[in-house]
Amino acid sequence: MTSVTRKRAGKSKDIIKKDGKTFFEFTDRTTAFDGIKKDEFPHKGEVCCRLSTYWFEIMEREGIPTHFRAFVPPNIMEVEYLEIIPIEVIWRNFVAGSMLKRYELGENPKTGIEPRLGARIPDGTIEFTTKFEEKDRLIDEQEIIDSGWLTHQELDYIRGCTRRINEIMSRHLLEKGIILADFKIEFGKDAEGDILLADEVGTPDGCRFWDQNSYKQGVIESLDKDVYRYEKGDLSDVYLRIYRRICE
Ligand code: UDP
């Protein structure tokens, strides 16, 4: 039997199709600020693949359907091929990143949230951005429905699922002295039209992790891609450290 391999490069992962199966290869590529900043860091792909595997297995046990099928050490994951829903879902427990920037510019202020880095957001908040535009653009639920990307019912499901994913990850991380400040996830639809958690989950590429002890002392110690975005430390060191704290 001939086996045809096709490879497509994303920003940090390559998608490989082989013998009717789909694989994600987590690479050491790192980008920030919509691809303006680019570099490579040893171990990064392996750390993100192992961490995603760790969290996907927890989500499946908790009854959240995901596209995860198998871990192929050290940095490959077999996944179910899905039609990706073209939105990024962001959950925030604390003010940081683009939300803080918006507040500083006076854009989209939400009532009841203190516009300060590290301020807690009571009960958390969900946001949606576009996925396939040059720059991620904040969109509201009406635009998602009007674009035909999701129905009301599907959006409700995604909202509830994201809240649960936050509860599960926050609980596990707090046991390890880590605060989950915010995270981004993506969803896709399988052949039956069911919605599954897709892409990667719980990695320092897609989450903000803060050391809880430092936070209590009024210092934000990032254990995620912010060390690269804002040149606060060596990405390989920080990613290995967070991996060990979560998984070992
Ligand atoms: N995020 C991501 N991919 C993106 C945009 C954001 O994984 O394309 C993650 C980011 O790491 C953070 C959360 O989503 O954990 C919220 O990001 P934010 O909107 O604050 O934007 P950023 O600071 O990344 O510009």
Write a compact overview of the structure shown:
With 248 residues, the chain is of the alpha+beta class. It has helices spanning 44-61, 97-104, 141-146, 152-174, 212-216, 226-229, 235-247; strands at residues 5-9, 13-18, 21-26, 29-32, 37-40, 68-72, 76-79, 83-84, 87-94, 120-130, 138-139, 178-185, 187-189, 195-197, 207-211.
Can you characterise this structure?
With 248 residues, the chain is an alpha+beta fold. It has a domain at 5-79: Phosphorylase Kinase, domain 1 (2-Layer Sandwich), CATH 3.30.200. The protein has helices at 44-61, 97-104, 141-146, 152-174, 212-216, 226-229, 235-247, and strands spanning 5-9, 13-18, 21-26, 29-32, 37-40, 68-72, 76-79, 83-84, 87-94, 120-130, 138-139, 178-185, 187-189, 195-197, 207-211. A 5-stranded antiparallel sheet has the order 1-2-3-7-6. A 5-stranded antiparallel sheet has the order 11-10-9-12-15. The chain has a 3-stranded antiparallel sheet with strand order 8-13-14, covered by helices on one side. Strand 2 (13-18) and strand 3 (21-26) form a beta hairpin. The chain is globular and about 55 Å long. The chain starts with a strand and ends with a helix. The structure holds uridine-5'-diphosphate. Residues 88, 90, 96-99, 136, 182-184, 205-208, 225 line the site of uridine-5'-diphosphate.
